[in-house]
Amino acid sequence: GLFIAMLFIYGKLNRSWRGQREIKVVFTSIANVRPDAPVLYNGLEVGRILETQIVPVDEALLERLPALTERNLENLPLSEEEREELRGVSSADLDAAIRKRIAGRTMAMLSLNVLDEGDSKRYRLDDDIRITSRILGETAVEIISGNGERLPAQDPPVLIGASHGAGNYAMSCR
Fold first, then answer.
1. Residue 90 region, left (φ>0) first, then alpha (ψ -120 to 50), else beta?
2. Closest-CA residue to 51 (of 77, 73, 29, 24)
3. Best label site of 30, 95, 117, 123, fewest CB within 10 Å?
4. How much is the average pLDDT of 38-50?
5. Banded pLDDT at 9 (limits 50, 70, 90)
6. Average pLDDT over all residues of the chain
7. pTM (2 d.p.)
């Protein structure tokens, strides 16, 4: 019994000694997500959710978002009509048009505490971040690796997560 307890404690301590970082992600909906839920990276558990909160899309948040493209339209607090209208905007003007449209709305923000382990190339700006259901209905945040620009270590942007299949809670908060 003592041996098993030591292995358990060592496993917990070993994880805390490794490099960690915080990643912030905004979603339009985070149904059933709770702090301390697991964060997976390509299926492997790499961390936990630290905090969930509803945040206004204000100037400070807009400045921390990466460049917004047509890829992001489904994951922002926009109506179908607004998405269709924005799809008609030229790519050169799209980022500014999206920012203007979502300003003043609300989104749900998750703070993720994840292992970094000195691997500065692990997390990327184009990672696909989504909320998934696990066995027995537990929810988790899954990060599927992208291949774009790496997430900077200093002052990283707030990433945009996908809320597929969840109710659009943030839209109802307008």
1. beta
2. 24
3. 117
4. 96
5. low
6. 85
7. 0.80
pLDDT tens for 86-105 read 999 999 999 999 999 999 99
Q: What is the dihedral of CA 96, 102, 107, 111, to 10 degrees?
A: 10
> Could you tell me if 128 and 162 are in contact, meaning their C-beta atoms sit under 8 angstroms apart?
yes
Residue whose entry in the numeric block shows the structure tokens 């659009």:
168
Q: Which amino acid is at 87?
A: R
Say how far residue 148 (Cα) sits from the centre of its chain. Answer: 16
